[in-house]
Amino acid sequence: MGEPTVTGIGMSIMGGSPNLDDLARKLDEIAPMDVDAVELSVFDDDVIVGGRILQDRLKRYRQICEARPFRYTVHGPLRSNLMDPEHVDLHKQVCGAFLEVTAAVGAEVEVHHTGIMPSGPAWLVEEYHAREAAALAELGEKAKSLGIRIAVECLFAEKGENYTATPSRLAEEINAVGNDHVVATLDFSHAYIQCNYRGLDYLEEIKQFAPVVGHLHIHDSFGRPTTLPPTAFGEAVAYGQGDLHMPLGWGDLPWDRILPELPFGPHSIAMLEIRHRWWSEIDHTLSEVRRFRDIINTAAERRAEFSQAA
pLDDT digit string (tens) for 204-236? Predict the structure, then answer.
């Protein structure tokens, strides 16, 4: 019997504050939820300034985390874009600092966004991927030396002038990097929006992505690109458009159909990533995440048994 695919369930803080007392309050708010892990919004916590770590601030940040009984992951910078030729060195510097912070707070994974660039011909898209892969190979060695993993998160593009990788194409890139410390984050909703926008089969795309996945972002949506810009976030929810980060069951992601089909590797954390405005709805949603964990792990056990029998 192999190792379980999903080894923990977590809550993402989804947004930080320059006041680190807010971090302590949010962690204490999560404590009664009975989760194993927390994803820290280091991108919004002012621990890194100009690519440099503020060591005194990091010391306090680490003390706050160590005082709570959680496993941790870190969400890296939202604007990271290793495809960008103009800023790739700056992105690498900043991302390297995030890896150091990840290790310093005892976190296991640093979530890193894949790139978004202007659409272009096939040769230009291949340049984007080659640039990102080279940077990830470099950062992957740093992650290896720190004993952590980078988990590259799939994104979505809602406008034709923008390009970002489909899940299957991002899997190709991560396989090309060939470093066990560079894995993928499957954001189920991001992939849903991207596949619907591109007219792709959602299940087939994420099945091709699953073998490189080492981290999960779970939240609900309708997979609808934003075609009606809302005047308030509540209107986006009412129309069901965009990356809503809703409680499970509010959208129409086909969880029970897709989860048994996904051949994830081991050591993933199922990280619930819903907006703070809905934390009052957390009980049912966390119950569903626990059920999802069991579906994924049971399916993985059956695949392993079938493989051994064959």
Answer: 999 999 999 999 999 999 999 999 887 899 999
CA distance 295 to 290: 9
Q: Which CATH number fits domain 6-309: 3.90.76.10, 3.30.160.40, 3.40.640.10, 3.20.20.150?
A: 3.20.20.150
Token couple for 258? 């897709």
Residue-level pLDDT at 265: 84
What does the alpha-carbon distance between residue 7 and residue 269 come to, in Å, rounded to a whole number? 6
- Output the pTM of the full model: 0.96
Residues 226, 188: Cα–Cα separation, whole Å: 17
Residues linked to residue 272 through DSSP beta bridges, in sequence order = 11, 218
Q: Report how far residue 150's alpha carbon sits from residue 184's, in angstroms, rounded to the nearest whole number.
A: 8
Residue 310: per-residue pLDDT: 64
